[in-house]
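[recover] target loaded
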């Protein structure tokens, strides 16, 4: 999925500690839950995708205060809603896209020649590396899922573009929960999906008083997908700072868990590009508009998505929190 905003804001923040104050989104502070683990609640903003009849997503990363959780730099959650997804061909650099559905189906095409449908319980992972373009479509159906981006570290951000489809991610059966491990490692279970930094992504099916293992060196985020789970309300993304070896999640429902080592590099994140400088992002934009560097998505019935105009001020590399 793309960032389809016609006037995307520069993602600005400065390096800072792994923890932080109670949450804010769009400038409004929201008290954190009364808990000794200093969780934060990141309220998302609603973003329409593709026009007046488009479906709406809740974007919790990047936020006003916190821009990343580990290398995870973008979280869009949508549905359940009756909708048609139609995202024209568009470019990406310096990141991986992670597509995970709870309900519905989405057809992925890319400039490598990939044609791959993704359904609930399956993982589509696209590594943009030095540059790729793709499109996404679905029929009129109930859509419910998440689209996430993972920033690539400096030594791997110019890697060759690639695509992976994992129809059956590995499963961890734990106390009160069953986890499908999308990326990284959880409780000793490791996904075959390619990751370039220490991280984790998993869908947790909670059934009772779950005790979920955590990597203490990771910061984590929790997003409720359905059901009722104590401490994780529908909509916001709950941030948990490093230092914990487990977390209790009483209830019944499904929760998305993301996490990783705090990302040490400063990045420039604008539209669908992750780079390291204004000049680099401007060059990516020019290449896309000139029809160079990103290949061609064959089979999509429509024109590629034009890039927005760059902002009047220079884009600056920033860290993961403000």
């Amino acid at each position: 999925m793309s960032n389809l905003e016609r006037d995307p804001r520069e993602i600005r923040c400065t390096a800072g500690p792994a923890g932080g104050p109670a949450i804010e989104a769009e400038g409004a502070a929201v008290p954190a839950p009364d808990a000794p683990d200093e969780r934060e609640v990141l309220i998302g903003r609603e973003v329409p995708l593709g026009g007046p009849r488009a479906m709406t997503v809740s974007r919790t990363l990047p936020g006003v205060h916190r821009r990343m959780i580990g290398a995870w730099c973008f979280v869009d959650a949508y549905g359940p809603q009756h909708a048609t997804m139609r995202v024209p061909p568009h470019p990406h650099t310096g990141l991986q896209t992670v597509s995970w559905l709870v309900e519905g189906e989405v057809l992925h095409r890319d400039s490598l020649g990939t044609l791959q449908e993704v359904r609930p319980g399956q993982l589509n992972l696209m590594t943009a590396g030095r540059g790729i373009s793709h499109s996404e479509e679905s029929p009129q159906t109930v859509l419910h899922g998440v689209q996430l981006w993972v920033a690539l570290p400096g030594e791997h951000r110019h890697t060759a573009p690639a695509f992976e489809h994992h129809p059956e991610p590995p499963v961890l059966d734990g106390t009160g929960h069953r986890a499908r491990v999308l990326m990284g490692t959880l409780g000793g279970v490791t996904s075959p999906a390619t990751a370039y930094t220490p991280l984790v992504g998993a869908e947790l099916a909670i059934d009772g008083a779950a005790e979920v293992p955590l990597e203490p060196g990771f910061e984590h985020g929790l997003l409720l997908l359905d059901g009722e789970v104590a401490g994780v309300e529908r909509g916001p993304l709950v941030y948990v700072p490093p230092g914990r070896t487990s977390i209790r999640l009483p209830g019944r429902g499904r929760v998305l868990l993301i996490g990783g080592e705090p990302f040490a590099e400063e990045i420039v994140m604008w539209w669908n590009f992750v780079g390291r400088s204004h000049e680099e992002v401007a060059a990516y934009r020019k290449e896309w508009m000139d029809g160079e560097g990103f290949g061609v998505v064959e089979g999509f019935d429509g024109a590629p998505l034009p890039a927005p105009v760059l902002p009047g001020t220079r884009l600056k590399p920033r860290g993961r929190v403000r």
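[recover] notes: The CA atoms of residues 11 and 181 lie 29 Å apart.
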